[in-house]
Structure formats: C-alpha cells, structure tokens
Amino acid sequence: MFLSVFDMFKVGVGPSSSHTMGPMVAAALFLDAMRASPFEFHGLKGSLHGSLAFTGVGHATDRATILGLAGFVPDDYDHEKAEATIEQIWETHTVRPEGLPELKFNPKEDLLFDFGPNLPGHANGMILMATDAQGDVILQETYYSIGGGFVMTEAELAAGKATDEGSPVPYPFKSASEMLEMAERSGKSIAEMKRENEIARNGAEHLHTGVSRIWEVMNNCIDQGLVNDGILPGGLEVRRRSKGIHDALLAERGTNLNAPHKINDWISIYAMAVNEQNAAGGQVVTAPTNGAAGVVPAVIRYWLDHVPGASETRVEEFLLTAAAIGGLVKFNASISGAEAGCQAEVGSASAMGAAGLAAVLGGTPEQIENAAEIALEHHLGMTCDPVKGLVQVPCIERNGLGAIKAVSAASLALRGDGKHLVPLDACIETMRQTGLDMGERYKETSLGGLAVNIPNC
Asked: Taking the model in full, what pTM does it have?
C-alpha cells in the first residue's frame, strides 16, 4: 500500500477539503472527461447530495463546484480571479473552461441541492452532467468526495479501495504492525522507510521540493492568521482571536504573567490561526483535511519556536512520519468527517502530529506508534457537528486542543519504551467501527449536537 506524503498534505483552499476542495476537483475531472469525449456540448448541470447538500452553503460547496466547472483547481487557486469569475458567471449564465466551448450554466437553476437520501456510495455525493443543444444529458458522472480532497467516481468506489498500480516501493506496509516489523528488520526509522518509498515512486528532487512547499504554505498560513483580525464570514459573527491572543502572549514575555501553562496558549493559537484562515477561504494544506488543517503545523511550529535544538532541516522527517500514520488511518478507516465524525479528522491529525513530534524528539518506531495511538484513542467518538454548517464552531478551537493532545501524547509516549496495551491498528479499527455506528446527524450534516443547540443558529 502506498499513499504519498502529497496525498496526505495537499495545498488547497478553505473552508473544507471534502466539501470545497473535493467538489472543485470533481468538477475538474468532469471537464477532463468532456474534453476527451467526441460529443459536442452546450451546457452543464449538477446536483449535490447528502452532506454536500445539508452543509454545502456553509462549506462553499456550491461556489467550489461553480468555480471548478469554470476551470479552477485548488492547488493554484487565485482568490481575486475567482471573485471576478463568479460575478461573470452569475451575470452571463455561462462558463468558459479552457479547451471547451462556452457552456450554458445558470447556478440558480442548474446546480441543485438534493436533501433526499444520500447517494449509495458515500455521504458526500454529487452528480455532474453535460447537455447537448436541446438540453438533453449526453454525459454524466457521479463523484464522491471521500475526505482530505480525495475524489472517486462511482465506479472507482464500487471497485473497493483504490488499486495501487504504481511502481513497487521497498516498504509497502498496510498496517502499523507491518510498519514496525519492517522498521525492526531494516533498522530504519519510519521516516526513512517513507522517504525511500517516496523516492522510488517520484524521485528525490520531487520529494524535497514538494515537502518544502508544503511547510512553506503551512507556516505562511500560521503567520497570516496571527496578523489578521476581524469577523469571519458566514453569519455566525465569529471573531478571529489568534492575533489578539498572540499579541497578549508577546507582551507577557519576561513578566510574572508568563506562567508555564501558557505554552498551551501558544500551541492553540498556531492551530487556530490556520483554521481561522481556512474559515475565511484562505490557502491551507490538508493535514489530512482542511477541517483539521491546524494541528500538524501547530505542533511543528511549537517544536521549532519553543523546543531547544529544533531545526527546520528536520521538518521533512516530521512530515514523512506524520504522513505514514495518516496513510494507515485513511487506508484502514477514514479521514472523512462525513463518514466517521471528527474523530476521523482532528483525531487523525492529532495522531499524525504526535507521531511526527515523537520522531523529531528522538523516539523509536515503537514510541512513535505509541504516540499516535494515544492521540487517536482520546478522540474516539468525537462527532462532527459544525454550527450553521461552517468550519468555525467547534472546529477552530478543536484544532487547538487536538494540537495540545498531540504534544501531550508524544511526551507521554517518550516517557515509556514503546510497549503498551492498545496497538495503533486496534485503535484505528475501533475508530472505523465507531464511525459506522455513529448517527448520521453527527457526521457533518449540522443536524445534531452543537449545530442544533446553539440559540439562533
């Protein structure tokens, strides 16, 4: 099994990897199918189903789909250009994707929110259609946004887990137990095995330049979040808090107000800064999702800014270790809030952050696996109940607490020798089963939990 570090960490746009990035990616895939088709197209239609319908407006799913059909993709998203394009589409009722003729598309009439039963494959389903001159559908595809910006067609999903058809990798572990066995036999760390797998597939230069960009975007996102203030969009009137807390923490340095427990505030604001940027539709990195994008960068920034001896030269080691753990969770369970609740998003991110931190602090593979298990175990059962369908409450603070748990889990694991009662594999399987048992209203539909118990929301 091989999931690249660039599968787990993707540069994209907020507020949601599954509800914003995924639909935009699906639209791009549909445009590619149209370009490869012999038919002559005149128009586009679409429908959003399940969680994409219930919380689509709050997650900007409609906007992402419209822009995707106009040719935008998450990786090089240009906000100003997008604003101008959206305005033009609403005025002209047409889109003009590259390589295709001008196509009729009136978002108000041609993109429908279907609040009926979910499509059979996944809670995040959408159908895209292309029409001829008479308005008849001549090309149609069903897509599922399965979390973290991953998208599969109906046929791909029905075929089961995606087949890994690339060149062989030297350490193809599919479980944590296999990972530990390979580490023991080879004498290599988890990051070293992951690095060799990446190089075998895509080459050393692609790995190093790609990881450098991932960290650059993550770090810039923190920095931007720490200087921006104001009210987040969406109608909840949620104030950005990272800048104010950051300014206060800087002012308290060197005073008797600088109590030891305030390190938690630093960890929290790094994560919250990212998720405030995400909520505002800014550029973020899935880690492994947008809703959980703040945890991993916050733990890295905590390590770099507050731990003696930390060095940016080892960020690649951190991210490779984190990606190895995230890949195990995705392959054996889920990273989708709509599929398994927030335990699959912030829980997975916390496990990834704990593993990465344990690695750069000198942990053995066994201690790293233990750190990931501790972090994930104490997110089990966590629901996804975003108020008003926005990735703001409880999501922003939850990333801060997920980062704190990651640091605590790594520290606790490093106090032991790696031997522990609950294997990471068992914890991942428990998360999968818990997700299956969880009521649909607690899985990113905004039909339960905080989403229905906050007054006037």
From this structure: 0.91
